[in-house]
Design a protein that fits this description.
Number of strands: 0
Helix content: over 70%
Largest sheet: none
Mean pLDDT: 86
Radius of gyration: 22 Å
Structural class: mainly alpha
Number of helices: 24
Shape: globular
Strand content: under 5%
Number of domains: 2
Amino acid sequence: MAAAAALLASSVLLSRVLGYLREALLAYYFGASGPADAYYAAFQLPDLLNHFLAAGALSIAFLPLYTQVRERNEAEADHLLATMLGNLGLLAAVVTAAMALAAGPLIALQFPAFDPATHALTVRLTRIVLPAQIFFLVGGVVQASLLARGRFAAAALAPLVYNVGIVAGGVLLSPWLGVEGFAWGALVGAALGPFGCPWLDARRRVRLAARVEPLDREFRRYLWLAIPVVAGFTLLTVDEWYGRWFGGTLGVGAIALLSYARRLAQAPVAVIGQAVAAAAQPALANLWAAGRGEELDRVLGTTLRALLSMGVLAGAAMLALAEPFVAIVYQRGAFTAADAGETARLLAVFCAAVPAWVVQQMAVRAFYARGDTWRPMFLGSAFALGAVPLYLALGERFGVVGVAAAGALAMGANAVATLVYARWRYGGPALAPIATAGLRALAIAALAAGAAAWCVAGRPGTLGALTDLALGGAAFAAVAGVGIASIGDAALRDALRRIGRRLPGRRAPQG
């Protein structure tokens, strides 16, 4: 689990660096403008399609089922894989075509405040990026078969290739096609990365075929497990949708500003929470299948202590260094100083939710490892729907900052409720050690963030922002290091030691 987490975390980190380059290029060319709003809004229908086709359920529902069938009989596993590829591939193609035809009225329904030019551009971009979901879905099925065999290389490489595709499209095509160049880059990147990487890795290891059998018994078992993911909406998914929907009512550039800030805040969530949770899912499921429920809760609790601590520290660091960070990544070209200031304010709000986002990624594994997808669906959907009035109220009163704050508050409540429910339902993980670890990390983070903020002087220009970031980052690291060594949770110290052993140039101890 540790090796897989390290590999996926490294991949996510590199992918986020490429993502920053992608966002920086978009900001350089288009700033917080109508075309930028149209680009981000163009992913709304594809994201909805991805959700309703249960692409996110592949690791949650299909991977455990495929593993069970494969342990029983390899031929049956090949049959299930072919049925998944045929059924889901055909469904994805049909629904994609239908959405592309109806893109005009669907965009108007979701973004009624768009002017005619922005609406038309959003429709065109949507029709370009929609087919990418076919590649995501079919590639995801193949990738799940590789994960079941302990092969994580394709999962690590796919997002890197995807982001390279978007960056290349922006650099090579945007001077002639405008923001449409980024959309074509996303389509090509999806074909080469999320689809191409697992397909190439699987050719000599997995028997690949396609079979359309919607009534297949094992496929119906998959649907039963996947239905909760399709029917339910969690804040991990819909917070970005809400940002687009409610941001679209707040004027030109609002969607872009929220998206720029959210992308930066999601970096530690992906590197810390998403990578570890993805790597942990097979291991936790195996513990449950082996009847080792107490060990599952113990591993889950230890992992949550480390993740919460790292999430608190990462969120505090980004909050303290928000202004120079935004200036370095975005402030050039069409992205003005005013845009940078507003994005930094939004980033500070989003950073407050980083610990909750990280914890939620892992907390739901208490359910998924046990094959329970229904209970977290009901809980997550309740919070996602219950948060709508909060988004409306805070967005109306405080604008884009209110929309960001609503997401932070709702996610915090959702993460706490998920942990409490898991403890009540299954008797684990233990909550007191997790809370203690979080409080220790909060004390360390407060001191470290104060030291970092004291070093940030708002120096002008890119060189000044780099100086602020370097001095502030060094101050944060120094204070945090002392704090972790003195009062940090044992799980955090152990996790950092493991990370240190895997850094380039460090040899693991022998013996």
